Amino acid sequence: MSVVIVDYGVGNIKSIQFAFKRLGVEAKLSNDPAIIKAADRVIFPGVGEASSAMKMLKQTGLDDVIPKLKQPVLGICLGMQLMCNGSEEGDTEGLGIFNAEVKRFSNKVKVPQMGWNTITNLKSELFNGIKENEFMYLVHSYYAEQCEESIASTDYEFSYASALQKDNFYGVQFHPEKSSTAGEQLLKNFLEL
């Protein structure tokens, strides 16, 4: 099983690699389209600001590569947000994989949302063995609106899509690599898709 983490200069890559290592998988870092296309599974991470992350993707041509991938792809945090139509953050056009808009939480709540929160309305084999209201670890100021492709929801100010799925593309707003046994189960499920 070859797992490739898309390396485009933004992301908490080490903790994702360690999480896969615990599952017995050596996840490779690459920004080479040929290596990414040949992988069995692709992780699209992201930490940071949407417009500069999108710029990095465009510089490497990965903005064309990612939407055409045929194997299971998992976007994490900003990675998931970049897979949406667009983000209010830096008025960024996304990859358009998920038909959702990314908006900023209002100042009525503490921004960023940081820490543990529950996921509900779980609707995918990605969540096999994970219970409703399981806690996952989140750090984000922007969220994906509820849409048809939502496969999990979280409440913070209101209900938003904390996971999305369309065809072979999956995205999670939370960090499975920092979400204890439930996060590990999700990564294991992703390997088994």
The separation of the N and C termini measures 12 Å
Low-confidence stretches: none
Derived structural class:
alpha/beta
Q: How much strand?
A: 25-35%
Secondary structure tally: strands = 13
Please state the overall shape, judged from the principal axes of the Cα atoms.
globular
- Sketch the major β-sheet: 7 strands, mixed
Classify the helix fraction into a percent range. 25-40%
Provide the succession of SSEs.
Answer: EHEHEHHEHEEEEEEEEEH
- The average pLDDT score comes to 97
Q: Please tally the helical runs, counting DSSP H or I stretches of 4 or more residues.
A: 6
- The rounded Rg comes to 15 Å
- Which strand order do you get reading across the main beta sheet? 2-1-3-4-13-12-11
Can you describe what's shown?
This protein is of the alpha/beta class and 193 residues long. The protein contains 6 helices and 13 strands. The strands form 3 sheets. Strands 2-1-3-4-13-12-11 form a 7-stranded mixed sheet. The protein has a 4-stranded mixed sheet with strand order 6-5-7-10. The protein is globular. Strand 11 and strand 12 form a beta hairpin.
